């Protein structure tokens, strides 16, 4: 495990309890014993009410504790605020990709670019990190600091606009130039850092935030990152899989901070016995926006089980994003292209048993015009 995250034994214990609760689907009432504190924390992470002895039956199902109440979309899509537009518009769509796999191995995309602020999965963590912060400091006037490769920054800029916070964002030099314009339009202060990965300067952002009296949310270590996907994303997908009567055999997702794939792993491996989890990372020595290699340091993936991590080159990521655009008619980002490339590699290698596979598509392709322009001539030559 990365040295930064060693020794978080408390988190490990909470996740073990959460996994057990998911596996059993029931919780005994809590009587105030010392060991009940871990159960309470796990239930809060799962979005469940606490069954206290004397106020609840001796044992309750997760459904009785409000497990699925978080996933209650507005059927007529009418919202009282742009913040509601985010979380009351979940689940994000799950769609069959008919150009991938075959009649026996079927691919489904979870379209996270339907989130409204950054058109990406990072809207979830931007919202939840701010939500958790305000629970501790209600009514505070804050300046938010964050290292980002664009999407989390856009999500935080949106939350800053909604809540009236100042937002300072720090971008690596390798990220597309369009990000500066997009983030500035949304009201954030943007600074470029002469490093290639966001994780390389999170300590610098932490130090600066303390110096200037700001709050460094730190998506790389903030457990709200993992928590929002366990409480919302995983439940949504579970309900969608059940509704469509899918024979779910695997989930393929990119590794960036590792929040969403780790939460999906904990949830589905606890609730189901035969779901495989496949992570996707850039090939050695390469950069794909939104994902990175495990050894660069990420937190939650070390607390869960990932069956295989697949390497993908930037050229493969772009080529498969283009393939999805030309065969399915949707413009996806480069991390989505990488996820598609990994699925195709697993499929062509005969590693996928018959059934349904969910590909988590983190964001839209509009931010990546520079990368598409660079690689399209190479793709056309093939």
From TrEMBL:
<dbReference type="InterPro" id="IPR036052">
    <property type="entry name" value="TrpB-like_PALP_sf"/>
</dbReference>
<dbReference type="GO" id="GO:0006535">
    <property type="term" value="P:cysteine biosynthetic process from serine"/>
</dbReference>
<dbReference type="InterPro" id="IPR001216">
    <property type="entry name" value="P-phosphate_BS"/>
</dbReference>
<feature type="domain" description="Tryptophan synthase beta chain-like PALP">
    <location>
        <begin position="89"/>
        <end position="361"/>
    </location>
</feature>
<dbReference type="InterPro" id="IPR050214">
    <property type="entry name" value="Cys_Synth/Cystath_Beta-Synth"/>
</dbReference>
<dbReference type="InterPro" id="IPR001926">
    <property type="entry name" value="TrpB-like_PALP"/>
</dbReference>
<dbReference type="Pfam" id="PF00291">
    <property type="entry name" value="PALP"/>
</dbReference>
<protein>
    <submittedName>
        <fullName>Pyridoxal-5'-phosphate-dependent enzyme, beta subunit</fullName>
    </submittedName>
</protein>
């Amino acid at each position: 495990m990365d040295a930064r995250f060693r020794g978080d034994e408390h988190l490990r214990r909470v996740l073990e309890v959460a996994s057990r609760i998911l596996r059993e689907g029931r919780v005994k009432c809590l009587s105030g014993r010392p060991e009940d504190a871990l159960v309470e924390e796990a239930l809060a992470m799962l979005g469940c009410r606490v069954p206290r002895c004397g106020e609840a039956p001796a044992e309750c199902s997760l459904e009785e504790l409000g497990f699925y109440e978080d996933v209650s979309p507005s059927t007529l899509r009418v919202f009282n605020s742009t913040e509601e537009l985010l979380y009351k518009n979940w689940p994000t769509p799950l769609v069959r990709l008919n150009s991938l796999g075959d009649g026996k191995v079927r691919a489904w995309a979870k379209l996270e670019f339907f989130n409204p602020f950054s058109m990406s999965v990072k809207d979830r963590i931007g919202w939840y990190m701010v939500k958790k912060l305000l629970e501790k400091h209600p009514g505070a006037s804050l300046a938010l600091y964050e290292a980002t490769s664009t999407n989390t920054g856009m999500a935080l800029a949106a939350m800053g606009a909604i809540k009236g916070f100042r937002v300072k964002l720090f971008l690596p030099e390798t990220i597309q130039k369009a990000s500066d314009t997009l983030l500035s339009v949304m009201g954030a202060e943007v600074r470029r850092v002469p490093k290639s990965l966001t994780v390389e300067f999170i300590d610098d952002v932490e130090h600066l935030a303390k110096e200037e009296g700001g709050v460094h949310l730190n998506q790389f270590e903030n457990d709200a990152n993992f928590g929002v996907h366990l409480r919302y994303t995983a439940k949504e997908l579970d309900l969608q899989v059940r509704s469509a009567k899918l024979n779910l055999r695997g989930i393929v997702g990119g590794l960036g901070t590792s929040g969403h794939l780790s939460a999906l792993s904990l949830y589905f491996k606890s609730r189901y016995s035969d779901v495989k989890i496949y992570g996707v990372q850039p090939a050695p020595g390469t950069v794909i926006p939104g994902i990175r290699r495990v050894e660069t340091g990420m937190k939650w993936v070390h607390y869960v089980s990932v069956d295989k991590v697949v390497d993908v080159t930037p050229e493969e990521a772009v080529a498969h994003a283009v393939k999805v655009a030309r065969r399915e008619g949707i413009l996806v980002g480069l991390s989505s292209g990488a996820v598609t490339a990994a699925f195709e590699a697993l499929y062509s290698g005969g590693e996928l048993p018959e059934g349904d596979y969910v590909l988590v598509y983190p964001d839209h392709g509009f931010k990546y015009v520079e990368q598409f322009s660079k690689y399209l001539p190479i793709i056309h030559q093939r």
